[in-house]
Amino acid sequence: MIEIERLSDKAHRMVVIAEFVQADAEQLVQFAQERNAAGGGGNLLIDVTAVTDFSFSAVAVELAHMPSLIKWVYGLDRIAIISDNAWVRTGSRLESALLPRVTYEVYDENEADAARAWIMEESAGPHTGAIRELDLGKPGIVAIELAGRLDREESERGIALVRQRMEETGAARMMLVIRDWHGFDLDRLMSREVLSGKLEIARNLDRYAIVGGPKWIRSYAEFTGAFVKAQIKAFALDEQDKALAWLEA
Q: CA-to-CA distance for 161 and 150, rounded, in angstroms?
């Protein structure tokens, strides 16, 4: 089942629920043709968090009308995909690389409000607010929580926040809690502020605890601990108390 909702003069929301069947594909094609006839353009929010399957007849309809669908998609200004399914998220990011004219972002279900705000052009950026400070009541420990996707601007803001707190409090220990890892934009790797800031922080830390996040992040962090002064230790998301105890030891 597919539902298409007009959010504004230039924004639409498309929700796919349960199985995507032939009638849904026909509705999608009709919508694309109408948008093409109206001049195209605009922003599209696609929510596929509730999709369960698709029929081959639906795929056949899409293939038969591929020129119209491609013209419509390539004419869009912004596309936001909401999905908690790993393969959908990965496929969406690969597809975004093929759409150089379209600004394309992927969100988890808990980022639905951010996705809508971005499509409505009501927010400063697509993934703002991924980093926030945690108050542990421990002046000697800087604690940061990550929930979302890191772009260059948010990475630079996070580095600046940690450096400021370390300077203000003299803290030499840090905890990073990763609630939801949505990846990062590659251009953050080119930021001088991020690279130099991370090196400065590493030089001034005694202990660094990473709580949660994908296993590869925790493994990589512990591996890099062999090359920096700080002791680095990784913990599962439900081991925050254990991580705090280690930082205080």
A: 15
Distance, CA of 223 to CA of 220 (rounded, Å): 5
How many whole angstroms separate alpha carbon 130 and alpha carbon 174?
18
Sheet of strand 11-20: strand arrangement: 2-6, 11-20, 43-54, 78-82, 103-107
- The answer to whether the CB of 152 falls within 8 A of the CB of 187 is yes
Measure CA 117 to chain center: 14
As a whole number of angstroms, the distance between CA 144 and CA 173 comes to 12
Sole residue written with tokens 């279900």? 109
Share in percent of the chain as helix, strand, coil (round to 5): 50, 30, 20
Among the listed residues 144, 139, 136, 158, the one whose alpha carbon sits nearest the alpha carbon of residue 212? 144
Which residue carries 């590869």 as its tokens? Answer: 216
At 124, phi and psi to the nearest 5?
Answer: -70, -30
| pLDDT recorded at residue 86 | 66
pTM of the model: 0.64
The Cα–Cα gap between 85 and 244 comes to 32
Tell whether the torsion through CA atoms of 71, 121, 112 and 212 is positive or negative.
positive
Give 156-214 pLDDT, tens digit per residue. Answer: 888 999 999 999 999 999 999 998 776 666 665 667 788 888 888 888 999 999 999 88
Task: Return left, alpha or beta for 13; rule: phi > 0 is left, psi -120 to 50 is alpha, else beta.
Answer: beta
Whole-number pLDDT of residue 230:
84
